[in-house]
Write a structure and sequence with these properties.
Layout lengths: L9 E7 L3 E6 H13 L4 E4 L2 H9 L9 E5 L4 E10 L4 H20 L3 E12 L4
Parallel strand pairs: 5-6
Antiparallel strand pairs: 1-2, 3-5, 4-5
Helix pairs in contact: 1-3
């Protein structure tokens, strides 16, 4: 059986003839963005509620769900959909997410983040 190689976008961030090179898959950048966003108070999940409900029924948590990363030769653009908890201000929460995601990607990868676009896809109503 011949298995087709998996096609993944990777980005070379460091090249040194003596030691080797470092490449980062685009999915890794998306996971970093998802983790950073989930650390902000008021963010319930990335992606939409329907997607997260289906995934949680199978016991899977996909941290890159609802996140699209476009890595160019000199910068990164991130588009993300979030579900926020009811009661949190959307502008303040979105701004904190943008700052946290930008900082996390730049610190962990060395790539420059051009933009972080946040789309609020849902509101989580917490039952007490």
């Amino acid at each position: 059986m011949n298995k087709e190689p998996e096609i993944r976008n990777t980005y070379k961030i460091h090249e040194n003839g003596k030691i080797g090179e470092v490449q980062i898959a685009d999915e890794v950048v998306a996971v970093i963005a998802g983790l950073a966003a989930s650390e902000v108070k008021g963010v319930a999940a990335t992606g939409s509620n329907v997607t997260n409900e289906i995934a949680s029924k199978f016991g899977k948590k996909n941290l890159s769900k609802g996140i699209k990363v476009l890595v160019g030769p000199d910068c990164v653009s991130v588009d993300m959909a979030l579900t926020i908890d009811y009661g949190y201000g959307i502008p303040e929460t979105a701004k904190q997410v943008q700052e946290k995601v930008k900082l996390a990607i730049e610190n962990m990868t060395g790539l420059t983040v051009k933009e972080v676009n946040v789309r609020i896809a849902g509101v989580n109503i917490v039952k007490e």
